[in-house]
Amino acid sequence: MDWEVGSRTLRPHEARPGDATCPRDLNSTACHSSHSTCRATTGPYKFKRNGLNHTTGYVCKCDKGYQGNPYLAQGCQDVNECELSDTCFGNCTNLPGTFLCQCPTGTVGDPSIRNGCIPPHDLDTGLIIGLGVGSGEIILVLFIGGRFIIRIIQRRREKRMRLWFFKRNRGQLLQQLVCQRADIAERMILSLEELEKATNNFDKARELGGGGHGTVYKGILSSLHVVAIKKSKIVIQREIDEFINEVAILSQINHINIVKLLGCCLETEVPLLVYEFISSGTLHNHLHVEASVSLSWKDRLRIAVEIAKALSYLHSLTSTPIIHRDVKTPNILLDDNLTVKLSDFGASRYVPIDQTGLDTTVQGTFGYLDPMYHSTGHLTEKNDVYSFGVILIELLTRKKPVSYRSPQGHSLVYHFMTLLSEGNLSRILDPQVSKEGDGEVVDIALLAKMCVKFVSKDRPTMRQVEIMLESIHAAKEYASSDNMTDESEESYVGANDLSVGGKSVGAARQD
C-alpha cells in the first residue's frame, strides 16, 4: 500500500502511519515515540484498500528539543542545545527537551547573547552612561523604581524569615525552660538590628576570634555595654540545639567564675549569643606564648582554684546538676585581673539528682576527653573531673594536651603519670614552675593523678578537689607572706590530709 502526498508517493517504511485515526493510536509505541506529537490529517493523503478511497490518517512529529524518527518507539532523541553555537554564552546545562542558561556567579544580564553577562557594578555604570547619552529620564525612573521595588521585596522576605526563625528558636528555648523560669526567654531577647548596629554589621575588624564552628565579635550595645557576640559559621541542627542549650543553662547561672550571658537574638537561623566582654583572652593563649616565661606559678595556682570552684558549683549547687562536657583551657577566659570565667556551655547537659549519669553521644575535645566516657558513652560529673586533671597537668608542664606526644609517642597524661610514678617529675615540669614553686607543686601533681584515674569512681568529686586546692593555695599564700604559725600549719596539714577514695593526699604522696 502506497501513500500519495501531493504528487509524491511515500513508501510504507518512510511514513507507516497505519490505517487508524490519530487518537486511538496515540499511545501505540509501534508507530509513535514517547517524545512526539500526533496530528490527525484528512489530506492530501489518498490510499486504496478493499477497493475504497480513504482520505484520513495522522502524522507524527518530534517534540521541541528532540529530533529523529517519531514513528519509532525511541525514535525521538534529546537535542543537546549546549553543543549548538549561539545558543548560550553563559553557564549552560542540558535538560530533557530543553536547557538552562545562566550568567556565571558574580555577573548579571542576558546569557543568551554574546557578552550579555557583566558584573553588577558594570551594569550600574553602563546604565548611568546610557542615561547620559539617550533619553535618560525615562530609563532612570525605571531603573531606580526597579531597584526600589526589589529592595522592598527583599526587606519583606527578610522580615518574614526573621519572624519564622524567632518563633522556631523561641519555641525550642521555652521547651528547654519547662518547669524553669520561662520569663528568661522574654527579658534576654535582643533584636538582630541592635546587634548589627553594635558590631557595625559584623565588621571583620570587630572579630575577637573563634574556631571552626563560630566567630566572636566585640560590640557596643545602645546601653553602651561592651559585649562579646557569638555567631555560628555553619547551619546544622546540632549548632542550633547547642546554642539554645547554652542559653537555657547560662540564663539560670550566676557565679563569679562563669561567664555571664546577657542576652540572645533568635531572629537568625542559628541564634546569636551575647556575653559580658572578657578582655584578656583565654588561659590557653596565656599559657602557650612563645616567650620562655608565662603566667606566674602563683597565678596558675589561683586560676586552678577558681576553675574548681566553677565546676563544683555546676555539679553541686545548681538546682539540677550540670556537666560542662568540654572543660579545656581554650574555654577558660580571663579578665583584666586574670579572674577565671568558664565559658562555652553548648555541649553541657543537665543530670537529674536521682540519676547517676546519662548515656549520650560522646562529645568533647581530644586530649581532655575522659577515656572511660569515650569507651562507654556514659556521662557523669567525673568526666569533668578528668578534664580538670588534664588542665592541672597543663598548668604544671605548659604542654598542649591536644598535640603533645612523648618521644615514645605517648599522650601528655600517660607520660606525666609515668614520670610521676618514677620520681622523675622534674623532667616534664615547666622550668618556670620548678623555679617559682615549692612543695605544693608535688601536691598539685598528686591531685592531678587522682583526677585522671581511668576508673571514674576512683576519682574525687569536684567539691573534694575544690577543698584540697583551697588548702594548698592557702598554705602557699601563708608561706609567701611568712605568716605560717604553728597553729595555721596544723590547720593546713589537717585539711590537706582530706581522704579521697580511702586515701589521703599525704598518703598518696608516699605512693
Automatic annotation (TrEMBL):
> Where in the cell?
Membrane
Q: What GO biological process terms are annotated to this protein in UniProt?
A: cell surface receptor signaling pathway
Read off the CDD domains from this record: EGF_CA (cd00054)
Domain Protein kinase positions: 202-476
Q: Name the InterPro entries for this protein.
A: EGF, EGF-like_Ca-bd_dom, EGF-type_Asp/Asn_hydroxyl_site, EGF_Ca-bd_CS, Kinase-like_dom_sf, Prot_kinase_dom, Protein_kinase_ATP_BS, Ser-Thr/Tyr_kinase_cat_dom
Q: How does it sit in the membrane?
A: Single-pass type I membrane protein
Provide the alphabetized UniProt keywords: ATP-binding, Disulfide bond, Kinase, Membrane, Nucleotide-binding, Serine/threonine-protein kinase, Signal, Transferase, Transmembrane, Transmembrane helix
Amino acids binding ATP: 231
Instruction: Report which superkingdom the organism of origin falls in.
Output: Eukaryota
Q: What is its main location?
A: membrane
One MF annotation (Gene Ontology) recorded for this entry: ATP binding
Residue spans crossing the bilayer: 127-150
Location of the region described as Disordered in the Swiss-Prot/TrEMBL record: 1-21, 478-511
Recorded protein name is Protein kinase domain-containing protein
The organism encoding this protein is: Panicum hallii var. hallii
